[in-house]
Amino acid sequence: MDLGLTGKWALVCGASKGLGFGCAQALVREGANVLIVARGVEALNAAAARLLADKARPAATEVVHIAADITTVQGRAAVFAQRRDFDILVTNAGGPPPGDFRNWDRDIWIKALDANMLTPIELIKATVDGMAARGFGRVVNITSNSVKAPIDILGLSNGARTGLTGFVAGVARNPRLAGAGVTINNLLPGSFATDRLMATIRATAEAGGVTFEQSSGTRLKGIPAGRYGTPEEFGAICAFLCSVHAAYINGQNLLADGGTYPGTL
Fold first, then answer.
1. Following CA atoms 128, 146, 256, 124 in sequence, which dihedral angle do they give, to the nearest 10 degrees?
2. What is the reported pLDDT for 28?
3. Which of 75, 253, 97, 247 is nearest to 164 (CA)?
4. Cα–Cα distance, 73 to 120 (Å, whole number)
5. Which residues are 184's β-sheet partners?
6. Across all residues in the chain, what is the average pLDDT?
7. Which of 113-117, 157-161, 190-194, 201-205 has the lowest mean pLDDT?
8. CA distances (Å), origin 212, targets 72, 199, 208, 226, 229
9. Across 41-53, average pLDDT
10. Cα gap 21→47, rounded to integer Å
11. d(CA 27, CA 110)
């Protein structure tokens, strides 16, 4: 299936590894040019090199990378100084740390909101009017399955990401955007085989006095698919949402969790 992305420009955040990299890789393979952003210079350089060396990448496809903290005004300015107009925006930020809400002061909450709610909103604000003017636009926010099934110790993530979800529910249905070919959706990952998940499993194992394998096995029992997802398949879902074929999918929260969420709706 031709996704109709050849020559489009995509801004992919948090793209040096994990799910962000999976999205960038899928878009590049579909012929989209990408500007990838992350804070870690070394990991970002390696990611750009991998994308450029990918044999499935059409030869004319461009890969640009900028090491910046996209959650800051300066970081966003650096990105938009490199390129102003994008057809595709994929927002992505690592989740805030777990813990007891009693220990979180205002500064901790603001940091979580900046990364997981306010930065995506700023990026959407900076790009969607241009998308509408050109008659095509796709925004995919990588959030979390905890938006659908909140987890007690992830209160910072629950709060910030749910705030973004509420914002998207309104703005995605703005006729000036939706009627001009711009869609905004949230992609909610469950357990994917990323460095972050492996670190979480390792920490859980150490806290519980069990092995990594035992901790991982316990987590897998809660996933009907019986396995973790891969960044590649997550990227493929993202690329489809960005495609011309997904023009009638808008303002939605799509779970990719191997069937973990038990609800009907």
1. 10
2. 98
3. 253
4. 12
5. 139
6. 95
7. 201-205
8. 36, 10, 10, 17, 18
9. 98
10. 7
11. 32
**Using an 8 Å Cβ cutoff, are 227 and 220 in contact?**
yes
Q: Per residue in 133-154, pLDDT tens?
A: 999 999 999 999 989 999 888 8
The closest of 204, 201, 196, 121 to 163, measured between CA atoms, is 121
Give the whole-number percent of the chain exceeding pLDDT 90: 88
Counted residue by residue, the chain has a size of 265
Instruction: Please provide residue 183's backbone torsions phi and psi, each rounded to the nearest 5 degrees.
Output: -115, 145
Question: Tokens 């306010």 belong to which residue?
Answer: 118
Tokens matching residue 109? 């909450």
Contacts of 1 (CB under 8 A, 6+ apart): 245
Contacts 24+ apart (CB under 8 A), 214-217: none
As a whole number of angstroms, the distance between CA 76 and CA 39 comes to 12
